[in-house]
Amino acid sequence: MSAYKIAMLDESSTECAITHVLAAPEVARLHLRTRILVLAANGIPLLHAIIIGAAFLLPVNWIARAGMAMALLYLAPPLLSRTIRVVSQVQEGRTEFGGRNFVRWWCLLQLQGIFNRFPAFEEFLRIVPGLYSLWLRLWGAKIGRLTYWAPGTAILDRSFIEIGDDVVFGAGVRLNPHVLARNEAGKNELLLATIKIGAGAIIGGYSLLTAGTEIPAGESTRAHLLSPPFTLWKNGKRINKQTRETNNRPA
Questions:
Q1: At what angle do helices 76-88 and 100-111 cross, to 10 degrees?
Q2: Shortest CA distance to 154 belongs to which of 121, 127, 198, 181?
Q3: Do residues 141 and 116 lie in contact, with contact meaning Cβ atoms separated by under 8 Å?
Q4: 136 part of a folded domain
Q5: Which domain holds residue 120?
Q6: How many independent structural domains does the chain possess?
Q7: Global pTM?
Q8: 184 found inside a domain
Q9: What would the pLDDT profile of 174-230 be if each residue is shown by its tens digit?
Q10: Low-confidence residues of the chain, pLDDT below 70?
Q11: Is 251 part of any domain?
């Protein structure tokens, strides 16, 4: 199996597969400051949960407490994420493991941690038509009208998806705009790229779309589709499998 496939299969677990890399020997070669930043960022989901819980202790009525908790749960992370992307300019493409761009992206991922670990929070939003798509737009995603999100749809990097109008997702579809792979030098690197799905496309149930995957408008993919990074699908076939990410490697 190629490095892409290995990383892609690792990503299919409920937890973000990147955590296994942090235990690898390569982490010992990271600068101390980088290790501290990465480990500190790991506490973001817990801090988020604590802040939400603290809202229920405010000296106001229960309606205000519930409203504050909901705002902290659903609004604070996407707004912070958009701010980080604007200020730090997280770049897509190949990213050096442990580099500054990697750390910025890692912080973005941790802001989504509570939703990745507790998918029910997102399923709740999908009950109201259009609400989930609106919420994804807060993260910076581009979502067209009348998108159907079937139960079990999972997205790891909510800022890096681009969906056209009238797109239908089958049950259990996973969108993973990032994967880990080993480059030709044998070093780990992050592949981060927007997943793009054209208008009117139908994504078969329990499919896994990874970094840079493109599904053209009107395409209907089979169930259990496994899409390697930077793959273009047409007429049910993989017609283009080339690395189209930029060659720039952020520091």
A1: 170
A2: 121
A3: no
A4: yes
A5: 3-241
A6: 1
A7: 0.83
A8: yes
A9: 999 999 888 777 788 999 999 999 999 999 999 999 999 999 999 999 999 999 999
A10: 1-30, 240-251
A11: no
